[in-house]
Amino acid sequence: MKQLDPHVVNPWAVDSLKIRIPLNRVKVLDESIRGMVSKVMPATESKEQGRQFYDLDGVLYNVLEETVNSKASRDERGIKTVFSIEQRATRHVPIQYLIILINAKQLGARYFEGITASNVADLHGYLMSLEVVVFSLKELLKGECVDIDFRKDFTAGEEEMKEALNHMHQNTQASTDFDKGSKLFWQKENKGLQFNKRNTTKVRTAPFLKVYSKSLDLLHKSNVFALAHFDTIPQNLWRLEFTVKNKKHLASFDVGNTLSDVLSLTPSDIETMSKRSLKAVLQPRKLDPQTKDERTITPKDLKELNYIILLLDTGMQWHTLKEAVLRGIHGYSRSKGLKRLNDLYDTHIRPIERFKAHHRINDLLKTIGYEF
């Protein structure tokens, strides 16, 4: 059995996507989605002539512009859902489609599950509760998907994460194209690393991929949603996400483009897709050689080191430890004792700390998938 990564708290799942359903399989409840929107001005204030009408108060208006509205949106407790109607050309006749922007926030308190086969019925129920359109769960699963964001959540300390992202940033694939490359951002309310642009058309060579602080995102950007659905905001939570743009991009992974196809993917399947995206944006890793002391530790040194490590493991700071060990010792003996403690620390303990730090960063990069 494969050992689970202790960093990962929410395995791979779908975070958001755009789905398309033929309009003839949908019942429209909110007719404003295909109504006429007019830009008007009182005739006394407008010199433009065109269609005119009187309002209920008898004021004459000039119609300056008319467009067909093709969108309806709902925004409740930090969850925004957009419905629209689009017409696509075919070989025979144009076909109208209902387009819905679906995201995991529509699952409410189950947000961190991501969109999966086990909760898609709840997602469908939420969409129907908005009373914009009506369609069956079967039609939702048959819908065609584009702009699919897959995500994985994991925990990490901020300083370790900063070092890991710096390492990735420094190993970005070189390119002369203006729309390729990585951007490292480390502000108070937004920290992470982004590769390429979301609207990229170079899906194989420049896929969109992002690693960022989900804790900060929920605290600042999505705070209305978080406060409405969670008791607490998770701390030290980071998110890795990548986008699969369209049918052709899905086909490159041997995946169909219906929602049913996408939800049939296992976390392991998505991990494989993620690693291919990472290989498109990152050069093979260059591991730093680890410095370590090769000299044999004498029994005397080992005895003193064991005492020092025992005290450090209790949480005692190095400065406090030295003061405690040298208390009551003065003059040359104190200077000699201080030099010996510092030598032991620099020779044996500091390399161990560097080695442990290296392994923590290495584990984080492995969690992200950067292990090639």
Would you give an account of this structure?
It is a single chain. The protein has 372 residues and is α+β, with helices and mostly antiparallel strands. The protein has three domains: 8-26 and 70-281, no CATH class; 35-67, no CATH class; 299-368. The chain has eleven helices and 14 strands. The protein has a nine-stranded antiparallel β-sheet. The two termini are 23 Å apart. The relative contact order is 0.13.
Give the gist of this structure:
With 372 residues, this protein is of the alpha+beta class.
Keywords:
3 domains, 11 helices, 35% helix, nine-stranded antiparallel sheet, alpha+beta, three-stranded antiparallel sheet, 372 residues, single chain
* SSE arrangement, N to C: EEEEEEEEHEHEHEEEHHEHHHHHH
Mean pLDDT across all amino acids: 87
Distance between the termini: 23 Å
> Strand sequence of the main sheet, in spatial order?
6-7-8-1-10-14-13-12-11
Structural class: alpha+beta
Please write out the topology.
Blueprint: E1 8-22, E2 27-28, E3 36-42, E4 52-54, E5 60-68, E6 71-76, E7 79-88, E8 95-103, H1 120-129, E9 133-134, H2 137-142, E10 144-155, H3 158-170, E11 182-187, E12 190-195, E13 209-213, H4 214-221, H5 223-229, E14 237-244, H6 247-251, H7 259-263, H8 267-281, H9 299-313, H10 318-325, H11 331-368
Antiparallel strand pairs: 1-8, 1-10, 2-9, 3-5, 4-5, 6-7, 7-8, 10-14, 11-12, 12-13, 13-14
Helix pairs in contact: 3-11, 4-5
